[in-house]
Specification:
Distance between the termini: 8 Å
Structural class: alpha+beta
CATH superfamily: Transposase IS200-like
Oligomer: single chain
Strand content: 15-25%
Largest sheet: 4 strands, antiparallel
Radius of gyration: 16 Å
CATH class: Alpha Beta
Order of helices and strands: EEHEEHHEHHE
Helix content: 40-55%
Number of strands: 6
CATH topology: Alpha-Beta Plaits
Length: 184
């Protein structure tokens, strides 16, 4: 298995969690997962996001990220969440998932200029200041589908960077290894 390690000169790594309102299991079919993957790819290519790790679970997602020095992570995350909210809502409408839409509409009831709230309010960024903390969060994130019983090994979960790190599989999405160096 490949090992990942934080470069000593990097100090702006964050572990974040984005959770669907009411923990509704939105991510159960390909179109919903693909909304997240497409948006992460766009943010990497156009907004300065550095994606070191991720996992998309049915009700939430975790990421280990950084960003280019000329960008602000909170702005990237704001745009990511706003865009994916609109796309998820449209997909829910196409799929006729009225019960989910009703929950999201009720969640936005007291919000100005917002008809639906898909994501819970914050993305809870936690700064990763040490290599040990980085490894702990990456392992916790990658082990999520194993703990729940969805798969036997982290790399078996399709929507996880465990596939990138363990199998060197970048087919679904590439991650930003230039921030890291690998040990054999």
């Amino acid at each position: 298995m490949k090992r990942y390690k934080v470069s000593p000169e990097e100090t702006s790594f964050y572990y974040s969690t984005c959770t669907i309102v009411a923990w509704l299991p939105v991510f159960q079919s390909e179109p919903y997962f693909q909304i997240i993957i497409n948006s992460l790819n766009y943010c990497r290519a156009n907004k300065g996001l550095l994606l070191l790790g991720f996992i998309i679970m049915p009700t939430h997602m975790h990421m280990v990220t950084s960003n280019h020095s000329d960008t602000i992570l909170s702005e990237i995350m704001r745009d990511f969440r706003a865009y994916t909210s609109r796309k998820i809502r449209k997909q829910l409408e196409l799929d006729g998932r009225e019960s989910f839409l009703k929950v999201f509409e009720n969640s936005a009831r007291n919000l100005p200029k917002q008809q639906y709230r898909i994501w819970q309010e914050d993305y809870h960024p936690v700064a990763l200041y040490s290599e040990d903390w980085f490894h702990q969060k990456m392992n916790y994130m990658h082990d999520n589908p194993v703990r729940i019983g969805f798969v036997d090994l982290p790399e078996h979960w399709k929507y996880s960077s465990a596939r990138n790190w363990i199998l060197d599989d970048d087919r679904l999405i590439s991650i930003d290894r230039q921030c890291l160096f690998e040990e054999g």
